[in-house]
Design a protein that fits this description.
The protein is an alpha+beta fold and about 500 residues long. It has 13 helices and 20 strands. The strands form three sheets. Strands 3, 4, 5, 6, 11, 12, 13, 14, 15 and 16 form a ten-stranded mixed β-sheet that branches. Strands 1, 2, 7, 8, 9, 10, 17 and 18 form an eight-stranded mixed β-sheet that branches.
Amino acid sequence: MELYDITVIGGGINGAGIARDAAGRGLKVLLAEQNDFASATSSASTKLIHGGLRYLEYYEFRLVAESLAEREVMLRIAPHIIWPLEFVLPHEKHLRPAWVIRAGLFLYDHIGGRISLPKSRGVKLAPEGHGAGLKPAFTRGFAYYDAWVDDARLVVLTLSSARAHGATVLARTRCTGARREGDAWRVTLRDQASGKESEVRSRILVNAAGPWVKSLLDHELKIDSPGRVRLVKGSHIVVPRIHDKRYAYILQNPDRRVIFMIPYEREFTLIGTTDVQVTGEDIQPAISPEEIAYLCAAASRYSARAVTTDQVAWSYSGVRPLYDDGKEDPSAITRDYVLLLDEQGPPLLSVFGGKITTYRKLAEQVMDKLARWVPAHRPWTHAEALPGGDFGGRDFHSVLGEFRSRHPGLDPHWLARLLRRHGTLGEKILDDAKTEAGLGESFGGGLYERELAYLIEHEWARSAEDVLWRRTKCGLHMSEAQRRRVAERMAGER
């Protein structure tokens, strides 16, 4: 029976980060995910690498400082899938006084240490500038910078790095049970496609099951843990783009929540998120009509053109597994992470909470907690680019210019999209293709056979949903018939 140093249960961003960190320190690592990677919470975020400006109102100063410091690291190691984004906050003095916002932004500019992004400032909301798409009643506001991330690709590229460092990475493999046996865990795994079960031994077990973190403890591991989880659903809608500028809006709502309106996939605007407490029975979430109406109303308070339910081109929902800190208001529950270590025999570490921005730091903290059982290698993930992200100190646009010059026979806009998804690995996909015909079958939405084959071979893609909504967002640009064609093509692989 195979013996691993660490077995990680859960293939969301936290599990991926832990597996990568541990494998890069020379440990023998296994990661098992019951579905596709990033198929739950980690592909349903607002897609931001940010400090969390609103968390300052809840005095989450440590979390904000750590997140802003991590923002710098992530911009450096993944410049293809993470990039700066300017946010505009229209001012409504009856919701928050200007001095409160200025004070918060000043703290946001400085609490994370050295930052490379521009500092916040006051702006006039002119229709041709920072007020584009807004009602003319909004005349003044504030601008600051955070960063955008392709969340599902962040997970897959992190796992690709883990695999490159020697980790065994298994999708669609469910942990059906684990028990302590001597100085190791005996872990039972089931292949979801075949139903075949296998067993491995592991010196350490890490529970990074996200929304299933408590369920795994209760049912598969049969361990009573003091940790409690609050499941909070966040939903987003995608509508035709509200303006043609490159910046996003952060909107104050009368209920004191904030709503983001973010440029998305060139042709759309992403609006979110909600905070709805749910139970374990709702762990596979879907947006409700009430949430759609709430987001449309919130956006319409600011948008010059009303945002209506019939404009919604796509929606998605995810359940955040927040650590239960006793707060009643779902928006006020801490977004910080809590790591609980059970030492009653071979160690078990369970991850509660967390946010996509701090996943790499969370993984380092996990390794610190496990230092008594594993060799004390130094942290390293801050220094090595994720696959495709080694730009040699150049910025994205410089790399894009060279990429386009090497492939003059291919559409420059499509090349930009390919580089955003894969970075320098895009060359591996193109290989010797000189023209569109060399890319193989066109499925529509910017997806070609060459890239589809790459996603299947190198990125664990097995279904049309894996490809169209996680590895890429091509599904948003396709007709239903085109999406069916991809499903047929994927079915032929099985």
